[in-house]
Amino acid sequence: MKTPFSKIGVVIVTLAMLYFSLELKVHLEKPLEKKQSVEVYEIPLPFEPRVVRNEITDTKEYRCLSEAIFYEAGTQSQRGKEAVALVILNRTTHNNFPYSVCGVVSQRYRNQNCQFSYFCKRRQSPSGENWKESQEVALRALNGEFDEISIDKMKNVLYFHSDKVNPQFHQRRTFVTRIENHLFYR
User: Fold this and answer.
1) Tell me, what DSSP letter sits at residue 169?
2) 85-106 residue pLDDT tens
3) Alpha carbons 49 and 144: distance in angstroms, whole number
4) pTM higher than 0.70 for the full model?
5) Given CB 3.0 to 4.6 Å as the disulfide criterion, which of 2, 39, 70, 75 pairs with 134?
6) What span, in angstroms and rounded, lies between the C-alpha atoms of 68 and 14?
7) Which domains does the chain carry?
8) What's the CA gap between 157 and 152, in Å, rounded?
């Protein structure tokens, strides 16, 4: 059972880990002299990310989002890739889904089928131009660098599927848009 406190706890632990890893890095690079004070920086919340590029590309969340974009929309345009990324990020802020990108993409439906089919299938390691594009989209998504029109259009969109399948969930959802071969729903 999820409670609002569990989400707050995850955010607090994540922020504390980020803060202490940054502080440790500062101490290792340049030790403090006696009587020198340490500046405390405000760390933004995950749903308003503004993280330095070098730090984000080293995270598991970045890898999970890059892979999800690659396997779900790798051959699509930037717009298609961005839409998939926004759905995943939207799910991380919704109470019915895990609070992390990796949790969202690995979540199973009724403990059986993967919600993101690529996750349960054997797959080759990502590579090539589509992989590079997927990584760039993931980086921009985690930094909150999409334009407002994209974000507004995809607000509260939590579901998508390929036009090659006909899942049951779409009958209970509100259709929002079609981007290439994906249909998106609230």
Assistant:
1) G
2) 999 999 999 998 888 999 999 8
3) 6
4) no
5) 70
6) 22
7) 1-43 (no CATH), 51-185 (1.10.10.2520)
8) 10
